[in-house]
Amino acid sequence: xxxxxxxxxxxxxxxxxxxxxxxxxxxxxxxxxxxxxxxxxxxxxxxxxxxxxxxxxxxxxxxxxxxxxxxxxxxxxxxxxxxxxxxxxxxxxxxxxxxxxxxxxxxxxxxxxxxxxxxxxxxxxxxxxxxxxxxxxxxxxxxxxxxxxxxxxxxxxxxxxxxxxxxxxxxxxxxxxxxxxxxxxxxxxxxxxxxxxxxxxxxxxxxxxxxxxxxxxxxxxxxxxxxxxxxxxxxxxxxxxxxxxxxxxxxxxxxxxxxxxxxxx
Length: 265
Known about the structure:
about 260 residues, alpha/beta, Rossmann fold, seven-stranded parallel sheet, 11 helices, about 55% helix, oxidoreductase activity, NAD(P)-bd_dom_sf, SDR_fam, Dehydrogenase, oxidoreductase
């Protein structure tokens, strides 16, 4: 595999991650695709090899496990791969009161959404900085802009990702490494089904469906943003208005109440 243009994408088996893989392959990047489902990864890899003539390395692993980032680094380093693009897309949320959710699930969400993002970034960044080139895309969420009752850990974890990534942008802007936080709103992916029936029901309401974006739209917006100097992107005009304006203008108590009703199920 050529080492000059290799994109590593976590959570690549479906949704936004699979679309990132498709679009980077279309731009001539070889790929490392990471997720739990080896069957879905192999299907994706076969399609992209055929369509774009790129090499695709499949890494099936659970990134919510402790030391997952270190294991992933060891695998790619052992293959002699220099990662030029890192997309930290893997993540999940749970739905329900914190008191009612399995504590292990909450801890796994923090592990995947926060610790693994830091771990992969900290391991792949030094080579990028040494080369004076590279790209890191961390997928946060519109949930990062306000507390999210019934999805408290998910919202807090994405606020962490946004803050971490914006700080990283400031650190790396003079070193040639492009850093961007991407904050999608509702997107047509399996996310809410995985979060639980109540979350899926809340996401299927008419108002929610009117704001739902496709993975292709999210990744298209991201690719455009990479050509600029933004530290963060909120995908979609309506989502950006809510995140950048509404959450700052309305009283915090009202913002919390509204967000709780939207995802309450």
